[in-house]
Structure formats: structure tokens, C-alpha cells
Amino acid sequence: MSSTIGVQNIAHTNGTVAATVASDGGVTFSNPPIGLIKSSTLIESTSGTSIDFTGIPSYAQNITVLLSGVSTNGSSNLLLQLGGSGGIETSGYLGTIGRDGGAVLRTTGVGITYSLSSTYITHSQLSLWLVDASTNTWSIGSLGSGSSTAIIYFGTSSKSLSSALDRVRVTTVNGTDTFDAGKISMRYGG
Hints:
It is built from no helices and 17 strands. The strands form 3 sheets. Strands 4, 5, 7, 10, 11, 13, 14, 15 and 17 form a 9-stranded antiparallel β-sheet that branches. Strands 6, 8, 9, 12 and 16 form a 5-stranded antiparallel β-sheet that branches. Strands 1-2-3 form a 3-stranded antiparallel β-sheet, with no helix packed on it. By secondary structure, it is mainly β.
């Protein structure tokens, strides 16, 4: 024998709502548990000049961006850019992306690839960690490889934002090459 209890809100005895249950079964916490991991919607990277993930909650302290089989129609290298309520920030990044045989400083975003050609297919993991909430400073590690050519990319960066992070973007250095294959997803935790 089974039973079902239907609730819309779960509250403390003082009346403060602790969690809200949506009609689809999703639960939103007013004060999210530490360590909660949430996956984003998977985005097919088959068109457009950028892939944006928005609505990242203020409690997020670590974010992972995953690229699988991503390519563009050009040879401009891939970047990750961060933003807050004022939009995506395109300057003030501190870091380097490299590979065997070279490296380059990146100040307009976090390097995902280096020395790319239009035939490369990229698989990458970017890990973002909040270093200092008072200055919205993030530390970012980038690790990736190519499947059409034996190549490994690696780098680290940091970025202090003008407001709390609530969005990330995957794009290219020139901002005009178009995505034509692959998938990109994001997850975050508190």
C-alpha cells in the first residue's frame, strides 16, 4: 500500500517557507543546502556565435562547463566568458592557455583552445571556483583535447567580476565563427 501527500510549500514552524515544490516535481530551496549539484540543460552547439548559460544562482561556489565534440566553421580559438547582472565581461581576465609547443595570454576570456584549425573537434572541461565572494573573484582551470588531431590544451585563469556571477558564455576569440557541431553543458554546486 502506498500513500501520496501533496504539498506546494515546506515551512518551518515559524512560518518561513524553506522549500517550494513546483508542479513538475522540482524543488526550490529558499536557503539551498551546501554541496547541492544541479545540472543545466544540455545545449547542442550547432549554430550561433556563442552559447550562453544564464540564471546561475547566487549560492553557486563551483561551476563546471563541459564541451563534447565541439567545433566551429573557422579557426578562431574558443573562450569562456563570465558575467553578472551587467552582462558578459570581455576584459580583465588573467591567465594563459597552452599546449605542447606554445602558450598565449588571454585577457578577453578564459582560453579553452590554443592554435585551433577549422578541422579540430574539441572536448574540454572547465572548472570554476569562487575564491572571494566580496570581490566576485573566480579561479578557472581549463583542460581539453582534440579528437581529429592528437592535441592537449591546458590553462588557468582568474577573473574578478563587477557583480555576482550569474551567467557564462562559450564563444570564440573573434566572436564571429559559428558553432557547427557538438554539445555543451554546465552544472553548479553550492
